[in-house]
Amino acid sequence: MKAQVKEAPAWLLYSVLGGLLCAAFFGSISVGALEFSLFDAVRHPSSELSFIFWDIRLPRAILGLIVGATLGLAGAAMQGFLRNPLAEPGILGVTGGAALGAVAVFYTGLASAFPMMLPVGGILGAFVSVLLLYLFAGTLASVQTLILAGVAINVIAFSGTSLMLNLVKDPYAVLDIVFWQMGSLADRSFQHVFLILPFVLAGWCLLLWDRRALEALSLGEATASSLGISLKALRTRIILGTALCVGSSIAVCGSIGFVGLIVPHLLRPFVGYRPGRLLGASTLGGAVLLLGSDIAVRWIPSLVELKLGVITSLVGAPFFLLLIFQMRKKIL
Amino acid sequence: MRGFFPLGALAFVLCAAQITTLNAAEEGSSNPKRIVSVNLCTDELLLQFVGPERVAALTKFSADPEISTVAFQARGIKKIQGGIEDVQACGPDLLVGGRFSHQETLRFFDRAGIPVLTFGVPKNFEDIYEDIRRLAAGVGESAKGEKMIRDMQEELLKLRPASGIKKRAVFFQSDNYVPGVGTFENALMEAAGLRNIAFELGIKDYGRMGLEELIQARPDVIIFSSEQTKTRTVRGEVLSHPAIKKALPEVKIVTLSTLYLNCGSPVSVEAVRILVKETSP
Fold first, then answer.
1. CA dihedral of residues A281, A284, A288, A290 (deg, nearest 10)
2. Contact between B234 and A176 using a beta-carbon 8 Å cutoff
3. For the domain bounded by B5-120, which CATH number is listed?
4. What's this model's pTM, rounded to 2 decimal places?
């Protein structure tokens, strides 16, 4: 039985994803605690509504786009590089490492003294996690080894964060950290956007560069090498790229998981199962998913606004289980 | 409810052993001399009534000037974590603590027949006066307690601003939580002559207020519990949000150290004093 490869034409795929992205972005700037017409807000500068629009809604939507795109892209890149459909920054502990790095930075007071240290802390945490992952599991690890390595890294990151929570004397400070960790885009400003933008763009470049290398790698390491792909350079780019964009994104919005698992998986059939083409599509798809979730967070009526990280986990964890269920025969 | 098996048995043994000492303590029960406190709030209140010679042990927190208002007075007194063994080693004749921490310790010594006083979280000044009365009576210093309450009431009366237009304030806490009706923060704001916006919005206990709602509510004052110098978090970041500066240029931001908010005691009057000082024109 030969698998039918029904590859959607590129222009169709990108225009559908682009259209969805525009709709999600517009939805994100329209939804909030107050209801007002965006037209009014733009027409009357320096009114209360215009501040709410320009300084609260817009940076939130832009940050959602950036972080969502990052998580989608990083998920696709890790899945392509590790040749493993369960690879994802959250499950493999990269998000946990980044969160630990960020918590360490604001726990020590570095974040208030030098705001730039916040993304740097996140990036360092993410970098150590990816490095550990690679040392534990390597490129050609079985699914089990990889997931176990991810569990171990997550546990290390979790105990580090717990240790800091344990040592905090002020009960209010414990609350702050716990809330922060649940992940949210609420009340962020353009300062956050500009703070992470250089790191995120650098990370994106390193990851998107690997389109052809990942395609070649899908034919096997030997074939890739014979095609002139340097596996060492590819590995360095993937590790650095993931750490840069995931680390800085998580540092400003807390732990948000599973976007990198869901998006590449949903889009894979439409790009003909080609890991290179999946990168671009997942970047757009990740942004659509995160902006959509951030709209849901504000829309779902609840006493307290739900946290973005909680929503993505609620959707993502059953999805993860489903994937494991489908793969069970292959794994065992 | 005996979900306490090994400790329950131990308590029974100790009970038997304590009968003699208990009788001895009975005579001077209103005048305990080896008081142990296992909660920072009771540490602070206790030292208002009794000298260090009557205190057998306080919590480790009491020595830390960042979170304790009695760090100076607590010098030289033994500090413990508050576990059962810790407390037992001090041979207490009165144990005081809060409702939420070290419950096992409190229950254990209650069963063992040692007098135990437990204090809840105050929701208003009446609750604080009640706590002061109970603790003062427990250590045999009721007169001091009544004097303290009178002093607090007089101070609060002096601080109460002359009636006029009340400033509208909101108390911003972790993750945009705001205290409403029935909270101690609300009582502090009322005592300082401020009108709580959360109260206007009908928030009971604690509710949440997004940045957009905050801007729409147009507060005159935003109160914010500051973080300590040594354990910083992301708290307060939201107050430096550019939207607040632009849409509420006139708003007065008052930071109140959590030192003044953790416990109900005469220190609570200080919190009101700070609010009045910072918000009066």
1. 100
2. yes
3. 3.40.50.1980
4. 0.83
